[in-house]
Each structure stands twice: as C-alpha cells, then as structure tokens.
Amino acid sequence: MKFSGRMKKVSLVSAIGVFLLFFPYIVGKSEFYLNVFILVGIYLILAMSFQFLHELRLLNLGHPAYMGIGAYISACLTVNFGLPFWVALPIAGIASMVFASLVGIPTVRVGMIAFLMISLSILFLFPVVMANYWTGLFGGYNGLVGVPSPSISLPGLPNILLSHGLPYYYLTLAIVLITVVFFWNLSRSRFGKLSKAIGSAEPTAESVGVNTFKIKMIAFMICTFFAGIAGSLYVHYISVVTPTDFGLQPLILMQVYAIVGGINSVFGPILGAIVVGAVSVFLMDLEIWGELIFGLLLIIVLLLSPDGLWGIGQSMLSRCKGLKKKSEVWNNFRGIQK
Amino acid sequence: MLAQVSLNAVMLSANYALLAVGMSLVFGVMRVVNLAHGALYMLGGFVLFFTYIQFGLNYALSLILTIITLFLLGIAIDQLTLRTTRGKIAVQFLITLGVMYVLDIGALLGFGYTEKSVPPIVEGVTYIGGAVFANSRLVPAILAIVFIVALFAFMQYTKLGRAMRAVAQNQDAAALQGVNINFVFPLSFGIGAALAGVAGALLAPMTFIHPFVGQPILWKCFIIVIIGGLGSIPGCLVGGVILGLIDSFMATYVGAVPAQIAAFGAVIVILLVRPSGLLGRERL
Questions:
Q1: Are B264 and A125 in contact (CB < 8 Å)?
Q2: How much is the pLDDT for A158?
Q3: B223: buried, middle or exposed (CB in 10 Å: 19+, 13-18, 0-12)?
Q4: Dist CA B131 CA A248 (whole Å)
C-alpha cells in the first residue's frame, strides 16, 4: 500500500499529538519542564496573534498590554467577585477585544509607523494606569494576589483542581491547540488571504473595493481576544498579577518567537516557540545572561533572515523538491533519447 | 510659587530638548526610530561616573571623553546592526529595541545592580528676579542650550551639516549631489549617540546612575520627538517646552501620574491628528 501524501500528514499530526499527550510522562512529570511548556505555550498564543496582525502591517507593540487587560479582568473577576475560571476566561478575552475595538477605531487607519508608535504608547501607559487607578479592583501597585486555580466541578464527580504542573499542562495544551488550529484555518481562509493582500498592497486592495478598515478592525479584535485569553491563562497559573508584568519582557519574548520562527507564516511563531523555548531551558540557569542572549538573538535573526527559521526551512524544502524535479526531468529526457 | 514652577519648567525643558535632539537627528537623517537612545543616555552617565569619579579627571575633560566614547559607540552600533538593513524602517525599529535590551542588560552585568551617584558639579544658588535657581540645575540647563545651539550651527553652516540635512530631505538626491551616504549615516548615528551621552553626563548629578535609568528617559524623548516633530531640531525645543510644562505644572498641581498620562495622551492625539508632529515635515 502506497503511503499517500494525505496519510503522511495524518500520521505526522497523530505522532505529534501522541507526543504532546504523553509529554508530561516522558519528562517524568517534572514540574520544571511542565512549567517551561506552559509558559512557552502562553507566549505562543501571544506570538501567533501578533504574527497575524503583522500580516496586515499592524505592528502591535502594545500586544502585551491586551494580555494584561485579560489577566487583570480575569484575576479581578475571580478574586473580587468569586466568579469561576471558566466564566472569567472568555470574559477576559472579550474585555481585551472591547478595549481593542475602542483603540482601533481611530488607530488602524493611520500608517504603519504611526500605529507602531501609538501601540508602544499604550504599552507604556498600561502599567501607569493599572498601578494608580481603580486600585480597589486592581490592587494598585502591588496588584492582586491569590488568584485561584481553575477547578472542574461537574455534578456527581469530585472537584478537580487544576493547579500547577500536570493538570494545568493539559489545560494550556488544549487552549494552545485550539489557538493553533484557529490561526492556521484563519490564514488559509478568505479572510486570511484578504489580510495578506492588504498587508502587501493596501492601496491596490482598496482600489478593488476591499474595506481595509473593517478587515483591520476585525483582525485587531480577534488577535487581542487571544491576547486576553493568554493573559487569563497566565494569571491563573502564576496566581499573582502586577502592573509591570506586561511590559518589555513579554514584548521581546513574543517578538523573538515570531521573528526567529518566521514572521511571514503562521507556523513561524510555532517553530520559534519550540526552538527558542527549548533553548531557553538551557539559558535558564544563566538567568540574566539568558536575557542578554535573547536580545542578541533578536538582533541577529533580524539581520540574517527576514523570514526566520520557517523561511530557511521552506527554502531548503524547495531546493530538495527542485533537485528531485531536476533529476526527474533529466531521466525523462534520457528515456526519450533512448 | 508660579514663577518658581515656571522657571523650573524652563530649565527642565532645556534638558529635555537636549535629550530629544539626538533621537530627532537620527530619525531625520536615517529614518531610524532609535529605541536605544535611552540606553545611550544611561551609558553617558556611566562613562562620566568612571572618568569623573573613579579616575578623578576634571569635569570638562570627563565630558569630552563621554562625548567621544558615545560617538564611537554610536558608529559601532550603526555599522554592526543597521548597515545591512538600510531603508527597512520596521526592521530597524525592532533592531534598536534589541540593542536597547542588550545595552541595558549588558550594563547590568558589567556595572552591577547598585545605583551610583555623582555629586553636583557646582554648588550654591542664583537669584534672578524673585526666583531661586539651584546652580546644579541651572548650569546643566545652560550647557544644554549651548550644545543645542552648537548643533544647530553645525547643521546650518558647515559642509557636513548641510550634507546631513540634504540626506534628511532626500537620500537619493543627496547621493546624486555627491554626498557619501555611507559616511553620513554612521556619522549621524554617532552624533545622536554622543548627544544622548552628553545629556546623560549633564543630568547625572541630578539623578542617580543605574542601568535601567534609560527607560523612562526613552519615553520622555519619544514624547518630545513625536510632539515636536521627527527630524526637526526646533521641534525638539517645542516638544521639550511642552513636556517641560506638562511635567512641571501638572506634576506640581495635579500629580505625577496624570502628568504621565497627559504626556502619552498628547503623543497619541498628535499621532492621530498630525502624525508628523507640530513642526515636523515627514509623512508617517
């Protein structure tokens, strides 16, 4: 039986699926590795949504702030109002989305650099506002502590607490997989292709009647929704939220994942997260040297390859295909000659 | 009280304008938003600390050494990181973000976590009219104005300055006129870095020196340059004055936090309404 292309893809995906399912047991339920996976997964959600906005030439440097909004709303709802995690999670995403829609109305129209600088201003404003206003709800400078872990309470079954490590790993895995599938389908859909068209040639797209404002607004809202979800996931894992958690560090991390992996493809952030996440495990012992290497990594990758690792992989793949094609053509030619 | 606050505002504005003028110059000539500007300011403070305090050189010599060191560092950064990506604005933006991160963390690793301080260079107070000026603030403000005027004179009246202005207006046209762009770019970045360093050295006695002191400075420069207009030196003065007024008056009468929010709010409004800034000529 020939191993068709379709079967290859299905078996690859299943292999990865099995690996991910049993990953905790492969690493011996080590809290350390599970912690890395969970954090990498959370930042991957951020990186993928950042990447999609990048397709539209919307460099949203304020993306961590939307994660922060989701985090704070989720923390506030669970700590101050006692709502369960499963209610707070989608509300967190919606809150980020609502805020983004307010911000987006005036700002998605402006040029790329102006948008970039406005989003950077939002990133700077976020900790200032969260530390000083509505301190009753948001805990001011010290933030909120004691954010509860999610729990599953189905009638008739015992209460399952998804606290650190193993249970939270599966929660994160589920949400990350949903996000990956979503963005993969989004990039292949008509909306995704429209977005890329707007990104590469906006005046042309407008001239054929595409409502660029509407597309950009929808994309902005979708991506910030996921940023809010990532924020909620983050805060229920860390159990604490402070105003300064959502500044330059997540920004650089998110960009390193997306740019190292390949900013022009939906698989880029995924590849980047895997590679950089794996590397960061080794860098973790080095503490602050690890942070230095991250900055250097950002610069070096930006200088070397605009398409990141995914681009390198693609060009290697096409060279292999090209070589195969070349030899096929050559053999056919010799066959005809004979 | 009002007079005192106003005069504080004026001195603050002069210092802010000096901070911002380097960033504005780099953007004007190279179209690079230099996010590492704050880090370069921070390094200026450190160089001053090492020459003035540790080696005990006199202040003027330390200042000159700071300028030279930061100038060379700026050229090095440009040649290492920006040379191969000329013209790609978004990429260079992210590169300078990386440079800023590397410089900040590098300083943390190299110089340690503890704050260092430099004592005021001059002592005493001056009375002008009914207001009191602390000399330790007055002298840096005056020196700041001197440097800004010197830069303006350089840009207006020297051949090199005219070359830089030509490149700022239109790179291709300048190249056609025989301006060596590959020489002007690192030079501009070096001068921008040197200006950041001077600002760092002048303001060091007033605040402490620490690897992360560049970050709030970066935001301030960012605000001033955007409000005043990217690429415009008079714009920096205008932006400096506006931010100086916001910081002095709002901080004194309303509070430091609303002052910060007002400043960033002004940035966002300007970017939405007139993206090139009040006096800028660039289309964003």
A1: yes
A2: 67
A3: buried
A4: 41
Q: In this structure, which long-range contacts are made by residues A187-195, counting pairs with CB atoms below 8 Å and at least 24 apart in sequence?
A: A187/A52, A187/A55, A187/A266, A191/A215, A191/A218, A191/A219, A192/A52, A192/A55, A195/A52, A195/A55, A195/A56, A195/A219
Interface residue of A299, A304, A307 to substitute, partner B, most B CBs within 10 Å = A299
CB atoms within 10 A of CB A128: 17
ipTM of the complex: 0.81
Interhelix angle B233-245/B214-228, rounded to 10 degrees, is: 110
| Selected residues 23-82 of chain B with any CB under 8 Å from a CB in chain A | 33, 81
> How does pLDDT run across A276-300, given as a tens digit for each residue?
888 877 776 667 777 788 888 878 8
- How many beta carbons lie within 10 A of that of residue B267, not counting itself? 26
Question: In 10 A of CB B86, how many CB atoms?
Answer: 15
Backbone angles phi, psi at A157, to 5 degrees: -110, 155
Pairing of strands B125-128, B131-134: antiparallel
φ/ψ (deg, to 5) at B115: -75, 145
Three-state DSSP at A74 gives helix
- Give the one of B106, B257, B267 whose C-beta lies nearest to A292's C-beta: B106
Asked if A288's CB is within 8 angstroms of B98's CB, the reply is no
pLDDT digits (tens, 9 = 90+) for A209-230: 888 899 999 999 999 999 999 9
The single-letter code of the amino acid at A186 is L
DSSP sequence for B84-105: GGTT-HHHHHHHHHHHHHHHHH
Instruction: Report the C-alpha gap between B148 and B150 in whole angstroms.
Output: 5
CA distance B218 to B236: 14
